[in-house]
């Protein structure tokens, strides 16, 4: 990179009004990197001829080979007096976490859409991501050449086609906008209502939901060429539709002002050439400028005339080229360069760091459920620093690191050889000359000296030679650079800063630290706070880095030397009042796992080290060590997995590794007893054959003295010391409830945190939005859990699990036990002040439930969609018998206080009776038998184990099923390969949801779902079978119950006839289950010898 442009960039960094931080977002293969190439070429970093072919920002070898981008990378560009920090992002779903890291650092985005394919699934996802991060998008409709060369559209048809695409994009934006306005509206109404309520004014209120929509101006949000936020381009040929240039040409010809023309180039206007006027009508002016069919390029004379009138320089080899397309692109790319149009649109339409909205700042700063105005005063003051984006010396420095990426240490600017300046060359020449003269003199002297000194000097020399060698060894290492942005203040090299962990709490820190302290002072230990120093600062230039001394506010930069204190992302600040930024929201769930081991067991430490580095270098990959001791890598999909393995092999561990087959996750659940058997006969009507298989009966038959299972599935279990008894029943949750719980897991986690802090006696100020979301969840659950069986269930939810936020419910159906519900945070102030009434060892029950739901009895996979109802829980606390009384007293007083609880008790009683459950031995009787030796610890432990076992037995008492993870995929395919796509889908147990024809093209869009277990190699197979015409992207969608029963054996005569004694026709669920059990080293029940006949040699009988 030239000296002058580096100096210019450094100068421009100080002027935030002229900085644009932007990223390029799109569906896979819509041409982001190609467009980035055109922009990079405009700065002379690569040549114009190579732009679009080189894909400069795809710097990895595998990116070039596969032709897809796998990481986001940044480059700083100059345009007029603007500095553009451009980030190219990947479009493949597997790398959508990289998109999140890019979007967080930007203020604007270029959304690229393929003019033929239109809005695709990832396009919607990125528009949503941009919306959620409050960054402003502009649109580039790319691959316009395909409209002409492939679809062979006329100008008018092309116009209609493009209009449709814009409608589709605007529809997506519209949906996002409407939901936001309605949400804000509802919030405002609620606040107003609350205010009114506090003023005690009654009366019905009528809500006008549409009112907010009409008032709010949304015209600036939509994409339209007359707004100037759309460019139609062909990145590969480097031209755009040149609306500005055409407006200029026509304005000269017609005498109409260019601005007016620009506004009317799009839409139902046309130019009346004779009258020299713009008229309104169904025709339109845009058709004039859609590049004409390339037939004109064949007319040599016309071309020459055009070339001279446009002042374009044509290379001889281009004008001689036989393909008219080459000529077309050569003329157009010079006449209407795409970079010009895109860059000027970006500078005009995208906001600078100074325009950051207050709303965005508050969103970034208020972590979790906390309200912005509940943060400490010092923290709230920082909002001003964000908004001012000031580079003053005294401004607090705030930096956000969105990811860490690894670079070869040799590629760092300090280790690279720079081209020398003229003076340096002269200096070196002088030095060399002197050395030569010295050597000559020394040679003369040496003749007189003894051998020893010669030897010494030789040694000295050899030492001097060795030093750089050492460095070389170092050079093969990877160094981590943080991908970051400065939001306020100036970052300087060597500066010390606080690193704020995600759980850091500024309130706590401010109370512990003295005022005005800085990261270089000796500080008391504050939780989640550490210090680091900015060892080196870099300007990110695509494949290269340039060293910098300081970086002012509003810029994107790389920071070296943070690998010890930052894992993946972090907030850095000089002020301890700064809160950590809200975590990045990743769209893709990491779902593909493999176990990894080194080829040579002795290289294990290298592998462990390598995996640690990989974990740090990838925003989405997770590295775990399972209980079994396996090293497991979790990735977002097959392509991502491949990249991680390559990285591990070649960069981080540098050893041969072997990866297991992907480990497929399953869930375990219970279902209602089926009404028909396997041959579709109603259950219970046929004659049962003598029971040959006794697999299932074992669990019910083996009754120890502490375990009792009754015919309705109620499991009663007593702890070994006989002090506590629990009775649990497993009930399948309705599908909708499971899905709701699964979707709301984040919210449930927040709820659990709130409850935890309430239990500890702290109260946090919760944002009204969170409270509303919780209320909404509760009412949704209530409406889904209807009917006699579920009466009052929602109020009695004890916990969620596993990990306290999973899709299983623990239900409190214990007679006479009124513990505070999980919804206690919704209760208004006054009442939540009273101490919650919780029995001793309440926690043990919850822990037992958590353990049971974490790994089920079928193959130790987590449970899903199961409700465990605790119907009896007797315990005697032998060490403090009087405590029981106090608890009872407590609950009595609780009842006496007379709120909803007494009714709750009534119903729980009736429901218990209705289901015909007889209460266990009464508490009083138990207490008289109380032993006297148990102390606190063992009882709680035993209770956990008992609860866990009870849950497992209760689970086994119901019909058990496996659940499989499902992918959705959208495949775009032409009619001729459609059959083959269906073939592959069918073979892999995929289901087609719908199929439609894409308007204006001969493509079909097929939407299908496919089990994850069958998906490996799917994309490759489809690509091969369709000669690369269809390439699907798999996105995790949901969990689905596999309908076959893994434990099924024929029991009726019909089944017996149909399936035979062994019932060995394919039982998919059993196969999956056994595969998992085998992998985990669990006992697998199978016959090893199928036909126990005497062996004989077959060949003799032939
Ligand atoms: N015909 C035509 N092809 C284009 C154009 N722009 C890009 N392409 C082609 O589209 C393919 C994908 O281009 P990329 O720039 O790699 O797409 P991308 O959006 O960066 O892809 P990912 O980063 O993998 O999401 C390449 O083969 C390009 O040659 C265009 O304007 N016209
Ligand atoms: Mg790309």
TrEMBL record:
Highest taxon above the source species: Eukaryota
The Tr-type G domain, residue ranges: 17-354
InterPro entries in the cross-refs: EFG_II, EFG_III/V, EFG_V-like, EFL1, P-loop_NTPase, Ribosomal_Su5_D2-typ_SF, Ribsml_uS5_D2-typ_fold_subgr, Small_GTP-bd
CDD domains reported for this sequence: aeEF2_snRNP_like_IV, eEF2_snRNP_like_C, EF2, EF2_II, EF2_snRNP_III
An example molecular function term from Gene Ontology annotations: GTP binding
Pfam families: EFG_C (PF00679), EFG_III (PF14492), EFL1 (PF25118), GTP_EFTU (PF00009)
Region of interest (Disordered), residue spans: 878-926
BP term (GO), one: cytosolic ribosome assembly
SMART domains given in the database record: EFG_C
Skewed-composition ranges (Basic and acidic residues): 882-897
Keywords, sorted A to Z: GTP-binding, Hydrolase, Nucleotide-binding, Ribosome biogenesis
A cellular-component GO term for this protein: ribonucleoprotein complex
UniProt biased composition (Low complexity): 898-915
Name of protein: Elongation factor-like 1
Source species of the chain: Myripristis murdjan
């Amino acid at each position: 990179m030239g000296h002058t442009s580096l100096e210019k960039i450094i100068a421009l960094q100080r002027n935030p009004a002229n900085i644009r931080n932007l990223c390029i977002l799109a569906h896979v293969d819509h041409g982001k990197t190609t467009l980035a190439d055109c922009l990079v070429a405009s700065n002379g970093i690569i040549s114009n001829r190579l732009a679009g072919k080189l894909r400069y920002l795809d710097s990895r070898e595998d990116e070039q080979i596969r032709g897809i981008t796998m990481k986001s990378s940044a480059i700083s560009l100059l345009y007029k007096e603007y500095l553009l920090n451009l980030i190219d992002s990947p479009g493949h779903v597997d790398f959508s976490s990289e998109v999140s890291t890019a979007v967080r650092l930007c203020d604007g985005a270029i959304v690229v859409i393929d003019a033929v394919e239109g809005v695709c699934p990832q396009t919607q996802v990125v528009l949503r991501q941009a919306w959620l991060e409050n960054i402003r998008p502009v649109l580039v409709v790319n691959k316009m050449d395909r409209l002409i060369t492939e679809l062979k559209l006329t100008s008018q048809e092309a116009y209609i086609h493009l209009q449709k695409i814009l409608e589709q994009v605007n529809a997506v934006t519209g949906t996002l906008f409407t939901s936001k306005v309605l949400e804000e509206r509802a919030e405002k109404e609620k606040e107003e209502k609350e205010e009114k309520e506090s003023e005690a004014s009654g009366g019905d209120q009528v809500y006008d939901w549409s009112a907010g929509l009409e008032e709010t101006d949304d015209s600036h949000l939509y994409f339209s060429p007359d707004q100037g936020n759309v460019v139609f381009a062909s990145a590969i040929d480097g031209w755009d539709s040149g609306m500005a240039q055409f407006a200029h040409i026509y304005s000269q010809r017609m005498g109409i002002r260019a601005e007016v023309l620009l506004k009317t180039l799009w839409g139902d206007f046309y130019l009346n050439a004779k009258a020299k006027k713009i008229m309104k009508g169904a025709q339109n002016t845009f058709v004039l400028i859609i590049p004409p069919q390339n037939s004109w390029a064949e007319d040599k004379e016309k071309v020459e005339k055009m070339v001279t009138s446009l002042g374009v320089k044509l290379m001889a080899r281009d004008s001689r080229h036989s393909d008219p397309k080459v000529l077309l692109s050569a003329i157009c790319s010079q006449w209407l360069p795409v970079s010009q149009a895109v860059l000027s649109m970006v500078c005009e339409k995208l906001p600078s760091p100074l325009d950051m909205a207050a709303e965005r700042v508050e969103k970034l700063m208020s972590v979790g459920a906390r309200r912005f105005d509940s943060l400490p005063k010092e923290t709230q003051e920082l909002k001003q620093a964000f908004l001012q984006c000031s580079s003053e010396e005294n401004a607090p420095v705030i930096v956000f690191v969105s990811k860490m990426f690894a670079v070869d240490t040799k590629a760092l600017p300090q280790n690279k050889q720079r081209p020398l300046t003229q003076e340096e060359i002269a200096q070196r020449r002088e030095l060399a000359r002197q050395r030569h003269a010295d050597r000559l003199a020394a040679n003369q002297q040496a003749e007189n000296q003894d051998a020893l000194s010669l030897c010494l000097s030789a040694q000295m020399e050899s030492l001097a030679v060795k030093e750089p060698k050492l460095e070389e060894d170092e050079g093969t290492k990877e160094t981590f650079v943080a991908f970051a942005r400065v939001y306020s203040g100036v970052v300087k090299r060597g500066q010390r800063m606080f690193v704020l962990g995600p759980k850091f709490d500024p309130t706590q820190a401010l109370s512990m630290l003295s005022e005005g302290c800085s990261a270089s002072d000796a500080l008391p230990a504050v939780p989640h706070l550490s210090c680091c120093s900015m060892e080196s600062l870099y300007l990110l230039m695509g494949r290269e880095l340039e060293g910098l001394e300081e970086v002012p506010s509003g810029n994107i930069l790389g920071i070296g030397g943070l690998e010890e204190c930052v894992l993946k992302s972090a907030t850095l600040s000089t002020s301890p009042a700064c809160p950590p930024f809200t975590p990045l929201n990743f769209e893709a769930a990491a779902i593909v796992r493999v176990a990894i081991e080194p080829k040579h067991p002795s290289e294990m430490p290298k592998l462990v080290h390598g995996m640690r580095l990989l974990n740090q270098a990838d925003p989405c990959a997770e590295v775990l060590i399972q209980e079994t001791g396996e090293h497991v890598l979790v990735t977002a999909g097959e392509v991502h997995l491949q990249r991680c393995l390559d990285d591990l092999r070649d960069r981080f561990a540098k050893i041969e590794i072997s990866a297991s087959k992907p480990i497929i996750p399953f869930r375990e659940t219970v279902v209602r007893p089926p009404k028909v058997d396997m041959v579709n006969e109603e259950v219970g009507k046929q004659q049962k054959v003598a029971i040959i298989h006794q697999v299932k009966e074992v669990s019910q038959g083996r009754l120890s003295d502490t375990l009792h299972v009754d015919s309705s599935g109620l499991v009663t279990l007593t702890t070994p010391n006989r002090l506590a008894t629990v009775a649990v029943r497993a009930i399948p949750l309705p599908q909708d409830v499971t899905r709701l719980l699964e979707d709301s897991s984040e919210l449930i986690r927040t709820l659990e945190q709130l409850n935890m802090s309430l239990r500890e006696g702290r109260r946090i100020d919760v944002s009204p939005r969170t409270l509303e979301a919780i209320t909404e969840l509760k009412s949704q659950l209530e409406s889904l859990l209807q009917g006699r069986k579920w009466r009052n269930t929602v109020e009695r939810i004890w916990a969620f699990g596993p990990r306290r936020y999973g899709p299983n419910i623990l239900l409190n159906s214990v007679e006479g036990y009124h513990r505070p519900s999980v919804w206690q945070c919704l209760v208004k102030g006054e009442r939540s002040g009273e101490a919650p009434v919780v029995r001793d060892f309440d926690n043990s029950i919850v822990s037992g439930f958590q353990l049971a739901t974490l790994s089920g009895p079928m193959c130790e996979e987590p449970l899903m969609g199961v409700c465990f109802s605790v119907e009896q829980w007797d315990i005697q606390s032998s060490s403090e018998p009087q405590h029981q009384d106090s608890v009872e007293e407590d609950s009595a007083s609780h009842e006496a206080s007379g709120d909803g609880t007494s009714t709750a008790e009534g119903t729980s009683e009736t429901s218990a009776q209705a289901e015909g459950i007889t209460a266990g031995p009464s508490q009083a009787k138990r207490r008289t038998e109380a032993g006297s030796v148990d102390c606190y610890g063992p009882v709680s432990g035993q209770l956990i184990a008992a609860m866990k076992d009870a849950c497992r037995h209760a689970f086994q008492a119901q019909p058990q099923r496996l659940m499989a993870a499902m992918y959705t995929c959208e495949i775009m395919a032409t009619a001729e390969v459609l059959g083959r796509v269906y073939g592959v889908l069918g073979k892999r147990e995929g289901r087609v949801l719908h199929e439609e024809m894409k308007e204006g093209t001969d493509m079909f869009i097929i939407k299908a779902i496919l089990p994850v277990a069958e998906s490996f190699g799917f994309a490759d197979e489809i690509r091969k079978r369709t000669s690369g015409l269809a390439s699907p992207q798999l996105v995790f969608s949901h969990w689905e119950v596999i309908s076959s029963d893994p434990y099924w054996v024929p029991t009726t005569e019909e089944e017996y006839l149909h399936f035979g004694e062994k019932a060995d026709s394919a039982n998919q669920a059993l196969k999956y289950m056994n595969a998992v059990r085998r992998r985990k080293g669990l006992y697998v029940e199978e016959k090893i010898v199928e036909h126990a006949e005497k062996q004989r040699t077959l060949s003799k009988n032939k």
